[in-house]
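Following the same procedure, backbone shapes were mapped to integers, yielding the entry below.
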Amino acid sequence: MKFPGQRKIKHYFPVNADNRFDRENVSFGHVNTYVTGIDQNIVDVTAHVSDSVLEDFGLGKGISQLLPDNDAANRLYAYLLDNKLIEEEYAGGTIGNTLHNYSVLADDRSIQFGVMSENIVIGTSSYRYLCNTSSKVDLTFLQPVPGSIGRAFALITQDGERTFGISPGLMNHLTPEFIPDDQVANGSALLLCAYTLANADLPIYQATIKAAKIAKENEVPVVLTMGSRQMVEARKKEFNEFIAEYVNIVAMNESEAEALTGYADPLLASQDLLKIVDLVLLTAGPEGLYLSGYSDRDALRQTSNPIRSGSISDFNRYEFSRPMIKKYCNDPVQVFAQIDPYMGGPERISNTNGAGDGALAAVVHDVAAKDFHGRVLPTSGKHSRGYLTYSSFAQVCKYANRVSYQVLAQSSPRLSRGLPEREDSLEEAYWSR
């Protein structure tokens, strides 16, 4: 993927002949594009323990639970460290994963807002978080806190049973003062997660609201990814109100979509969400993923792929159209696209964690690419309308699907490298039409 990173003249997105530019005089590297995001910074800790350890720390076997306090989490963590029981310790968090993957794919900067322990000891969770995050992710705006960030313990006993203990630490203590207006206002997109909106009494809630307001005032696309089905059901009204007020792009899985809209069918759920947003990314496990949004009637492009029907007839007819912001459409038409898992999916999937975050990173990359290209070539026909992405619904689906596959294949929510260079050829045939 070539846009929008510090790349040479060769680029991923071919342009029409009428819009070509002097490649000898244009340098892509001088345009400063980036995306921003807010996350509850957390580290996933996996350890093998005996049943007696669960009993000693008061953890119910085989369930997910909050640790009683930060002291209990510190004692558990110290015990695991001292006895060398920790098998894996990686940075987590849905926005943290997405920003990392975006920076790997785009080879470009992203900015993460959140908290970080002010005193970092080598080998501890905070240290691991920094080690597992791409150097392209700018962490200089993190708020220092006098304690630990979040920790999610996955404790595996000899019978293979997994017990989860969650310690929020100080991950929710991000205050609005550490959300710089100019950084949000000048970004290509703002990434948010519903988890930071789960409790209005926490400082991170107010920080999220502030960032969303800044983005809206400056017409920066706001992207919201949902949390667990249980949380969505508990705060359905509040989430719908926030989405309607601030959000342009919403991302979720089919279970979360059903909780939010009442529709189990992905197409109907997407159609319902399009009442309040411009673009919907819905991952549906073995069904692949759906991308739905708007395009102006006179900008519609028919697909050359087989026409498909489901709960909506001929739903993919215009999937070669480019997504647009609804308010900029003279005659908005809903457009739907769907793609099956890439190559049928990996032969063996040991962990599905992060597949949706990977798909979202691809969508955000395409949104940033549109902004990048618009700053380099503002007079290009690619920017004659209020487009939201650089590529078509169908092409964004292909890209998101490919990244999701890469995450599943490596069994880690954070990409260790970008996609193979040969992926560039996938776009050529489409844009040469």
